Backbone:
């Protein structure tokens, strides 16, 4: 029964949000271990968890190219989001405003437009 609960969590919104972010990237070779067949997202490059809940995403200076997925706003337990020093383009998704536990945000040195949502 524990295995069923654990794998049910693996297919949850954290997994969806992270894979949607990766899908929006044109260049993501640094995230080769981000695979939907993984048993947990917590062992993925740049991902840190408390228990099985994603609380930190640190992808600073990883040569990522592409856009930020609005589904990043589904990482509702995220406390740290560092996407600085990449080649991200487009607007900052308003869904980032859903990250009510966020304590640290760094999107600097990208090519993002717009402002942070309230």
Residues:
């Amino acid at each position: 029964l524990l295995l069923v609960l654990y794998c049910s969590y693996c297919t949850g919104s954290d997994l969806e949000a992270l894979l949607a972010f990766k899908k929006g990237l044109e260049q993501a070779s640094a995230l080769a271990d981000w695979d939907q067949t993984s048993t947990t997202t917590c062992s993925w490059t740049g991902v840190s968890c408390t228990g099985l809940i994603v609380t930190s995403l640190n992808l600073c200076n990883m040569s990522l190219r592409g856009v930020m997925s609005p589904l990043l706003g589904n990482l509702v337990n995220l406390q740290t989001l560092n996407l600085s020093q990449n080649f991200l383009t487009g607007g900052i998704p308003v869904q980032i405003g859903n990250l009510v536990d966020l304590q640290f945000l760094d999107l600097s040195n990208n090519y993002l437009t717009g402002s942070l949502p309230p």
